[in-house]
Amino acid sequence: MVTLIDGKTTAETIKAELTAEISSFTERKPGLAVIIVGDDPASHYYVNSKQKACTTVGINSFKSELAHDITKAELIEVIQSYNNDDKVDGILLQLPLPASLSADTQEIIDAISATKDVDGLTTTNLGKLLSKSKDAIEPCTPKGCMELLKRYQIEIQGKKAIVIGRSTLVGKPIALLLNNANATVVMAHSKTKNLDKEIKNADIVIAAIGKAEFIKGSLIKEGAVVIDVGINAIEVDGKRKLVGDIEFAEAQNQAEFITPVPGGVGPMTVAMLLKNTLELYQKRKSLAAR
Amino acid sequence: MVTLIDGKTTAETIKAELTAEISSFTERKPGLAVIIVGDDPASHYYVNSKQKACTTVGINSFKSELAHDITKAELIEVIQSYNNDDKVDGILLQLPLPASLSADTQEIIDAISATKDVDGLTTTNLGKLLSKSKDAIEPCTPKGCMELLKRYQIEIQGKKAIVIGRSTLVGKPIALLLNNANATVVMAHSKTKNLDKEIKNADIVIAAIGKAEFIKGSLIKEGAVVIDVGINAIEVDGKRKLVGDIEFAEAQNQAEFITPVPGGVGPMTVAMLLKNTLELYQKRKSLAAR
After folding, report:
1. β-sheet bridge partners, residue B233
2. Are residues A75 and A146 in the same domain?
3. Domain membership flag for residue B147
4. Contact A166 B179 (CB under 8 A)
5. How far apart (Å, rounded) are the C-alpha atoms in residues A218 and B112?
């Protein structure tokens, strides 16, 4: 019998935990600044859900909506003013940036102060992830995947895991986190030969490629754990539908645990954003108390 | 027929290339500062070979030999004075540090200016490696492995590679570089189950664990490429002998290409140190010219 990994309920549980913790803060509340550039509807939708989630748990949120043709220098100035703003514990730059800025994405992210890097995507923090520093902030989506495995008490040590997709934002950090948790990780990608065989051999399959139902569900090994990071919009009978990178209908017949799309990793990304905001808040507080 | 990957000769070729290039510099020559703490004979031997190699190619080298009980603060002060020294383009902290400092290794490495990080081991540089930044300095031993594959025209794209060992200094950076070169990489380690099977499936085997002949040569797939990073001293009939992490005698019957130990990766590490020093020199020069 397959167990559905319910990211939505898990995220609600985490939010309840955070709410309880934050409600006990008598002084200032944690603060998250969100920066969004341009008018991509999906990005605005995500940013709004993130702000709404902040409100729910008692985190103040601040938003800068910037014109799509803002210059790099202007954008970095906005980031820096949040760096210097004591009300702000975490700074989130909503990605992707518009085409005119996208080549400079990493440089712009690196303008975020290491102490406010809520998404864990600055170069310094990625380095900390690689060197397994205790000080590292785990990027939200990878952390959300790990938290799901943890809350469903899925053993990782010694397991063979495959991560399909090698982006700096998702694939590579997940591979490192799984490696740190003592899985044997295969990093697969578009140039991988025999991808089918690699998937068939994996106890844990993590898909982060962004291609609708790209991975055949029949490839999943019986009893495997499937975490689908992809959220892709397709049309079925003229209606818009969200699907993952893996054929869910088939995969659920093979897997022991599987995340649905939507309602799997997606809500966890937001929950981990809140959790990271709280972590940064507490770090700043303990630094200030020294 | 197996081809021996001759790291010694390849390193000599690279040194000749560097010598030719550096001899054309009419102003100042590149400079490398080497810092060694304590009196470990092997470390002193390595540092001396590195300085000798510098002299050969026309790089100035400076050495600080520090007492084993130096404090972290004092050591960082030495690093900082090299950071501020215009004659110095690269700073190498010989590892491992003595036991009293080893827990702070990464923090001490991070005192090296990013512009002089010749070993590519600062947190910032490791992050750049992960985000595939063009600006990254590739750590010397991983870069040496990649250079051997390149100079022997061994195709990497689409190949299945296994990296055994996941240290921050060697294993993880090699895995990232192979991934960047479009191999499908398995990151294996002491908690890996079925390691034998994983090795048997690999087209490229990279061993970086530091255990004498830990990997049975018979596990190597026929026609595979074997890169042995390990250098371990053992005793045979009362005589000291250096061996790798892989049983060479057996492995050479299976492999298409194989590195010997010694004379494989070892000399390449030094050659890449020289190459990185030159790269940093040229970067500083072009920055100064702006």
Report:
1. B242
2. no
3. yes
4. yes
5. 51
Cβ neighbours around B12 below 10 Å, total: 14
CA distances from A158 to A34, A180, B158 (A): 38, 11, 25
User: B158 and B53 share a domain?
Assistant: no
Rounded Cα gap, residues A56 and A16, in angstroms: 9
The contact set of B with A (CB < 8 A) is 106, 122-133, 157-160, 166, 168, 172, 175-176, 179, 182, 184-189, 191-194, 198
B127, A122: Cβ pair inside 8 Å?
yes
| Cβ within 8 Å, pair A191-B157 | yes
The pLDDT tens digits of the residues spanning A117-151 come to 999 999 999 999 999 999 999 999 999 999 999 99
Pick from B176, A99, A258, B159: nearest CA to A245: A258
DSSP string, B119-171: T--SHHHHHHHHTT-TTPPPPHHHHHHHHHHHHTT---TT-EEEEE---TTTH
ipTM above 0.85, yes or no: yes
Q: How far apart are CA A136 and CA A180, in angstroms?
A: 13
For all residues of chain B together, what is the average pLDDT? Answer: 96
pLDDT in tens, A155-179: 999 999 999 999 998 999 999 999 9
Domain identity same for B43 and B93: yes
Q: Is residue A274 part of a domain?
A: no
Q: Which residues of A are catalytic?
A: 50, 94, 119
The shortest CB-CB distance from A158 to any of B124, B185, B193 is to B193
Q: Round to whole Å and give the CA distance between B198 and B110.
A: 35
Split at pLDDT 50, 70, 90, the class of B289 is confident
More confident residue, A290 or B214: B214
The whole-number pLDDT of residue A27 equals 85
Looking at the structure of chain A, the number of domains it has is: 2
Partnered with residue B240 across adjacent β-strands are B235
Separation in Å, CA B209 to CA B166, B170, B188: 8, 9, 10
> Residue A18 domain-assigned?
no
pLDDT of A290 higher than 80: no
Q: Are B47 and B103 part of one and the same domain? A: yes
Residue numbers of the domain that contains B99: 25-112
In the predicted model, what is the mean pLDDT of residues B105-118?
97
Q: Examine the domain organization and report whether A151 and A261 are in the same domain.
A: yes
Asked whether residue B17 is domain-assigned, the answer is no
CB nearest A106 (choices: B131, B179, B187): B131
- Cβ atoms of A245 and A220 closer than 8 Å: no
> Given B112, B127, B151, which residue is the final one in a domain?
B112
pTM of the entire predicted model? 0.95
- For residues B148 and B251, membership in a common domain is answered with yes
Same domain assignment for residues A80 and A190 = no
Q: Which two tokens stand for residue A287?
A: 């630094």
Same domain, residue pair B106 and B145: no
